[in-house]
Amino acid sequence: MMKSWLRDVFSGRWRRMALALLISNALIPVPGLAAGSQDTINFSVTGTIIRPSCNIEAPSVVKLGTFNRQDLSIAGANSASIPVLVKLTGCTAGLSEATAQFSGQPYDNGAMGTAIYANQAENGAGDLGLQLINFDGKPLVNLANGVSYSVPIKADTHSGMLSLIARMYSPLGKPTAGDFSSSVTINFIYP
């Protein structure tokens, strides 16, 4: 039975009807294939922008030592220079420099406030301030309150080093006996 039905479909009259149906369907435009048609698709794009940064390793306390008043009895005298290393590691790839911004209580005697930090010890030694200077082979800079200093970041190691010297400084050469303490904040800014 099946064979005779198939034979009728592909014979004469059915074949002409099937051919007419195929031709008529071919003339009906199909969306997407017709000229001037359009499809609209929506999609989302996501990403993340990261802020460049580094890991910072620095000593929390720097001990300057104990000195006799006579050791600082000349105007502009200073105590022994103590090296301070601030390491910047694991810096974001592509970061070429960081800017160190220094802040702390400035020395309270005129122009010296732009060069050294105040002794903040309660009943502390007078005529003494903290001098921080760079120690990286560049011309010396007093890294006082409000000063910014550029720290290069090595591309191959993604790291940098801020080399400093810390020391007590006597503007007048007339220090009084007492303790010494000063607090400095270094804020790193990345371009």
From TrEMBL:
Keywords: Signal. GO terms for cellular component: pilus. GO terms for biological process: cell adhesion involved in single-species biofilm formation. The keyword Chloroplast does not apply. It holds the Pfam family Fimbrial. Residues 44-190 form the Fimbrial-type adhesion domain. Residues 1-34 form the signal peptide. InterPro entries: Adhesion_dom_fimbrial, Adhesion_dom_fimbrial_sf, Adhesion_dom_sf, Bact_Fimbrial_Adh_Pro. PANTHER family: FIMBRIAL SUBUNIT ELFA-RELATED, PROTEIN FIMG. This is Fimbrial protein SthD. It comes from Cronobacter sakazakii.
